[in-house]
UniProtKB/TrEMBL annotation:
PROSITE patterns: ABC_TRANSPORTER_1, ABC_TRANSPORTER_2. It comes from the Bacteria. The lineage of its organism: Bacteria, Pseudomonadati, Pseudomonadota, Alphaproteobacteria, Rhodospirillales. The keyword Transport applies. CDD domains: ABC_NrtD_SsuB_transporters. SUPFAM superfamilies: P-loop containing nucleoside triphosphate hydrolases. It holds the Pfam family ABC_tran. Signal peptide: none annotated. Residues 23-254 form the ABC transporter domain. This is NitT/TauT family transport system ATP-binding protein. Keywords: ATP-binding, Nucleotide-binding, Transport. Belongs to the ABC transporter superfamily. One of its GO terms (molecular function) is ATP binding.
Length: 275
């Protein structure tokens, strides 16, 4: 091969993206009074900068546990994990991620704005800066104008958007979302999925997202991680190629249906391994 060919080949190679989450041979066993619970086993995964990664698998397979390990809320019992090249603990101290829980978990006695600014207060950020950041985060989830309302004055979908704004308020590049739309009806969920995609396209954040819904996983993700029943193992990683500004219509395309089929087959195969 000539030097020119080598140079051309290198030029055609996609620029390698930064690994935000790097997991090698990770396992986690909970010790309980009833004996060990093997929650995760032999998990290998890289989440790259700008990825939208969904985790899908049967109930109890360890999706939340994996997200909590990334967030330093649980400790792995085996293997390695790094977040932006440092330990989850160091990443947590650097506030490298925002975390959105299954339920909005807003404090009922605080206004929406003051719920969003809560982590910033804990970080001892000035009031002026807190309000500015809350405004920006609420705008990103299209809740500007609702700053002075209280959680009970908002619908379930709006409350969940407020909790996303709270996770966005300290502008971490990594967003960890644990089934944030699971409790919402399908129409609201579709709408929030569209908004979340827009937000992802606009901010280029890296997202790790837990879901039970195959269409939600396929619609949102650049990478779908299919997990087996407990102990959670990765049985398939599917990369999708949809543009970032995709609309809900893509759910009717053959490509979408093919990926959804592959996810379903993976979930089925995982179940039969367990029998
Ligand atoms: N602190 C804990 N102590 C003991 N067992 C635990 C603990 N946390 C989770 N588990 C167990 O670990 C397994 C994985 O739980 P996890 O919540 O991660 O699953 P999941 O895939 O997120 O489930 P779901 O889809 O129902 O939310 C479950 O069997 C759960 O009961």
């Amino acid at each position: 091969m000539t030097l020119k060919q080598v140079v051309n080949n290198v030029a055609e190679m996609p620029a390698s993206k930064k690994a935000v989450v790097d997991i090698k041979k990770l396992s986690l066993t909970f010790q309980t009074a009833d004996g060990p619970v093997y929650a995760l086993s032999d998990v290998d995964l890289t989440i790259e900068e700008g990825d939208f990664v969904s985790f899908i698998g049967p109930s109890g397979c360890g999706k939340t546990t994996l997200l909590r390990v990334i967030a330093d809320l649980e400790q792995a019992t085996g293997g390695e994990i790094s977040i932006n090249g440092v330990t989850p603990h160091e990443a947590r101290e650097k506030r490298a991620y925002g975390y959105v829980f299954q339920a909005p978990a807003l404090l009922p006695w605080r206004s929406i704005e003051r719920n969003v600014t809560l982590p910033l207060e804990i970080m001892e950020i000035s009031k002026e800066e807190r309000v500015k950041r809350a405004q920006e985060a609420l705008k990103l989830v299209e809740l500007n104008g609702f700053e002075k309302k209280f959680p009970w004055q908002l619908s379930g979908g709006m409350q969940q958007r407020a909790s996303i704004a709270r996770a966005l308020s300290f502008d971490a590049d990594l967003l960890l979302m644990d089934e944030p739309f699971g409790a919402l009806d399908e129409i609201v969920r579709d709408h929030l999925n569209e908004q979340l995609l827009k937000l992802w396209a606009r901010t280029n954040k890296t997202v790790a997202f837990v879901t039970h819904s195959i269409p939600e996983a396929v619609y949102l993700s650049s990478k779908i991680v299919v997990m087996s029943p407990r102990p959670g193992r990765i049985i398939d990683v599917i990369e999708t190629d949809f543009p970032k500004d995709r609309t809900l219509d893509i759910r009717e395309t053959p490509e979408f249906l093919e990926i959804a089929h592959r996810v379903r087959e993976g979930l089925r195969a995982g179940h039969s391994n367990d029998e």
